[in-house]
Design a protein that fits this description.
heterodimer, A: 105 residues, mainly alpha, B: 577 residues, alpha+beta, Penicillin-binding protein 2a (Domain 2), Beta-lactamase, five-stranded mixed β-sheet, five-stranded antiparallel β-sheet, 35% helix
Chain lengths: 105, 577
């Protein structure tokens, strides 16, 4: 009789564990699906980002801006006589180097 | 066993051995089955599971995007964007006449052509049209025609269009680089497609990763040394100049005078990389890098620098150039006019062939060869650009005396425009030859010392005189800056002979002379609108590109504004060698 009870309880535990495995696997697959979905969205956003970058860089093409400025807005490049260059005092050589370094980045 | 059977009718006498044999056979069979079952269940498990998975697992590709090409400030010069390709499976296509009508209208193809493709007999895959914009693909999808499907492909776009075409190059329809950086750096840009095995459910959704077969390696972005703004100015001015002077072709190279980076490089004729139909072999040539030519007078500063360096002359040494001709062996070297007594500085200023030849003849051939070799003539400049030319510098022991003379003013030697521009770095860096790069340099690259900084300074002063009154190139002046440079006008070499009325007009110079930031080299091939002297054709182009580029880089003035003086009469007589 005691043996039978032990067996019964072991069987019950076994069934519960088996059901647990099944449900966890199901859960895992659902999460995986969600993850794949998010990855797809990421990918689409990357593609969209690329497209927007392309659009931006097409819009800022110098030839378009130049045409718009000169033909539509009647603007012109100021001649050197009309440009005043302001420098921050006299620069020594190391300051020059620093400035040039900064310009590169 | 059957011995005890009672029924008389079935009482057949069996031989005892036979029944035992049968029984044994049955037991053997049973054991076999049990063993097989145990083997399948226990030991052969993995294989079977694999086979099971294979029924619903799929290998899918993991894309590796082609890297972008950007300029030194991160502005895009080439980028991939998704497009759709429409294909049909002729076995599955069911299409009504109205649908066919709509389809051919959307695809902008003849109805007959569409029909021919979708009803093709052999094969189950035929492209209707490749690389259409995604919006159009959506419209076609909406027609809902069975047997017609889409795949995503990536197309290369070049926002700068023809402006940067020769440097950037282009790819073919399968995304393989065909020219320029796209070709030379194809391996870096392309990356590697990866793949993985996954399990999909009945709706085609991925529910489990089985294994990664290969990790995808995305393509790397390439940062060029080009500055898109300077590139644009160079391209615009070259186009204008080619049109005005009715030239056959032309090139401009803009270098950073301190680092040797290529900030701008443009040629004409050119193509639009966004439309493949504009591409042909003439337009594809990146002349500045792959065509070599006899440069003429733009080489004169080098023998003179070497003569000063080795102590043969100093800038104030006076030489007799009268009567404007000079016999070497059986050949005669000519100046445009008789200029009499000239100092070395003036020889460079007015570009006297006779003077330069006399200086060269006072040196050993080896000495002249050495400077040309040391500034990189006759060897590839090593940017990695496909098809880069070496030019031609023959060994000095094969030179005849006349060649020593002509080589000093740039004949009998051929160089590319990029080599020529690079050679001038020895004057802008105080004597060091810098490597030329198309990629942005992250660290300053060491140069190789060719001449002393004193000599470099002396040559800069002479070259500055060349752009001032009395020089050959007053039109190269830039308002507000001191400019140094040298003109060149060379008869074109056609089939081994110098063509009489065909010229290469060039100018190489740098500014601001007090602290050089840019070297610009300009060449126009066969200007046919009357003018052909480098000082009249190429120098003004140099001036405009330099002016715009210095403004963009916010370079402070090193001369009072209104410093530009021109002497039109001088250009009319043509003070050119």
């Amino acid at each position: 009789m005691r043996m039978f009870k032990l067996n019964l309880s072991l069987i019950l535990i076994l069934v519960v564990c088996a059901l647990g495995v099944v449900s966890v696997q199901h859960e895992a697959r659902k999460l995986k699906m969600a993850l794949e979905n998010e990855k797809k969205i990421t990918r689409n956003l990357e593609v969209e980002w690329g497209r927007l970058q392309l659009e931006q860089s097409t819009l800022i093409a110098r030839r378009h801006i130049e045409n718009a400025a000169i033909e539509q807005l009647n603007m012109e490049v100021p001649s050197a006589n009309h440009v005043q260059i302001i420098s921050a005092g006299k620069l020594n050589d190391s300051q020059w180097a620093e400035l040039e370094h900064a310009e590169k980045f | 066993m059957l011995k005890n059977f009672d029924s008389k009718t079935l009482q057949i006498k069996l031989r005892p051995g036979r029944s035992t044999f049968l029984f044994g056979l049955l037991i053997l069979g049973l054991t076999g089955l049990v063993a097989r079952a145990a083997y399948l269940q226990g030991m052969h498990n993995d294989f079977l599971r694999q086979e099971g998975e294979a029924r619903y697992s799929r290998v899918i590709e993991m894309n590796a995007d082609r890297g972008m090409i950007v300029d030194r400030n991160g502005e895009i010069l080439a980028i991939s964007s998704p497009v759709a390709s429409v294909y049909a499976d002729p076995k599955l296509v069911k299409i009504s006449p109205t649908q066919l009508e709509q389809l051919s209208r959307l695809l902008e193809m003849e109805k007959a052509e569409v029909e021919k493709r979708i009803y093709r007999k052999q094969g189950r895959f035929v492209y209707l049209k490749r690389q259409i914009v995604p919006e159009l693909a959506e419209q076609i999808k909406a027609l809902n025609i069975p047997g017609i499907a889409f795949e995503t492909e990536f197309k290369r776009y070049y926002p700068e269009g023809e402006g940067a075409a020769h440097v950037v190059g282009f790819t073919d329809i399968n995304d393989q680089g065909q020219e320029g950086i796209e070709r030379g750096w194809n391996n870096v840009l392309a990356g590697e497609v990866g793949s993985r095995r996954v399990i999909k459910d009945n709706k085609g959704r991925i529910i489990e990763d089985v294994e990664k077969i290969r990790n995808p390696k995305p393509g790397r972005d390439i940062v060029l040394s080009l500055d898109r703004r300077i590139q644009h100015i160079a391209h615009r001015e070259l186009r204008k100049a080619v049109a005005i002077h009715k030239a056959k072709a032309g090139s401009i190279v803009v270098l950073d005078a301190q680092t040797g980076e290529v900030l701008g490089l443009t040629n004409f004729p050119v193509y639009n990389p966004n439309s493949r139909s504009s591409i042909n072999s003439e337009r594809i040539r990146n002349r500045a890098l792959i065509d070599s030519f006899e440069p003429g007078s733009t080489l004169k500063p080098f023998p003179i620098a070497m003569a000063i360096e080795t102590g043969h002359v100093n800038p104030d040494t006076v030489l007799q150039t009268a009567p404007g001709t000079f016999k070497v062996g059986r050949s005669t070297i000519r100046d445009v006019s008789n200029k009499g007594l000239l100092s070395v500085a003036e020889i460079l200023q007015v570009s006297s062939n006779v003077g330069t030849a006399k200086i060269a003849l006072s040196m050993q051939p080896q000495t002249l060869w050495q400077i040309y070799n040391n500034v990189g003539f006759g060897a590839s400049i090593g940017t990695g650009f496909p098809g880069e030319a070496n030019g031609l510098l023959r060994p000095y022991n094969k030179w005849r005396p006349i060649e020593l003379a002509t080589m000093s003013f740039g004949h009998g030697i051929s160089v590319t425009l990029a080599q020529l521009a690079r050679a001038y770095t020895i004057f802008t860096t105080g004597g060091e030859l810098k490597p030329v790069t198309l990629e942005k340099q992250l660290f300053p690259v060491m140069g190789r010392r060719v001449i002393s900084s004193e000599t470099a300074l002396a040559i800069t002063q002479m070259l500055e005189m060349a752009t001032q009154s009395g020089g050959t190139a007053p039109l190269a002046q830039v308002n507000g800056y001191r400019v140094a440079g040298k003109t060149g006008t060379a008869h074109k070499l056609i089939d081994g002979k110098y063509a009489k009325n065909r010229y290469l007009s060039s100018f190489v110079g740098y500014a601001p002379a007090s602290r050089p930031r840019l070297i610009i080299a300009v060449i126009l091939d066969e200007p046919a609108a009357g003018k052909y002297f480098g000082g009249a054709v190429a120098a003004p182009v140099f001036s405009r590109v330099m002016e715009g580029a210095l403004r963009i880089l916010n370079v402070p003035h090193d001369a009072p504004v209104n410093n530009v003086v021109t002497f039109p009469s001088l250009l009319a007589t043509g003070a050119e060698g």
